[in-house]
Design brief:
5 helices, alpha+beta, rod-shaped, Nuclear Transport Factor 2, Chain: A, 4 strands, four-stranded antiparallel beta sheet
């Protein structure tokens, strides 16, 4: 009888071990299922759409920047069409700002997002140039600056470098 008891005890022990192994396997399966179910298909689809939108946005910005380089800045004729104030009107406004001045040069340009007429005006007893900027949309003076000979040389050198 003692052999039966020993055999029963072994059977019980074997069952317990088998239950522990089955429990461990079930826990592993749950863990794997939890890991794979963390991201549902809709979550993955949402992430992929976000990535696709970001890549599209970057491509659009790059194309926009590249087109600006390829096509360059608008021509003087295009800027003149945009202006509400003619060159003649802007010249009168600028020359009134510098008594006894003579306009040496004038151009239309976009500076800091604003369309302006820019005039270099010399005065008789001075080697300095007064730069007067007139808003091409309103006709009001935007800026007046006196440039020394040294300033003029720096500006000329910068323009030559910019054209290259």
């Amino acid at each position: 009888m003692s052999g039966l008891v020993a055999s029963s005890a072994q059977n019980v022990q074997l069952r317990e071990q088998r239950l522990e192994v089955e429990w461990d396997l079930a826990s592993e399966k749950d863990l794997v299922r939890d890991q794979t179910e963390r991201f549902s298909l809709t979550d993955v689809e949402w992430c992929m759409k976000r990535i696709k939108n970001l890549v599209g946005s970057f491509a659009f910005i790059a194309a926009l920047s590249l087109s600006r380089l390829v096509f360059g800045a608008p021509s003087e004729a295009e800027l003149i069409k945009e202006a509400k104030i003619s060159k003649g009107q802007a010249e009168k406004t600028a020359i009134n700002k510098v008594p006894h001045g003579v306009i040496k040069s004038g151009e239309i340009e976009r500076e800091h997002g604003r369309l302006i007429w820019s005039f270099d005006i010399s005065t008789p007893q001075s080697s300095n140039i007064t730069e007067v900027q007139v808003d091409a949309m309103s006709g009001k003076i935007v800026s007046t600056q006196v440039e020394t000979v040294r300033d003029q040389a720096k500006e000329s050198a910068a323009e030559k470098t910019e054209k290259k």
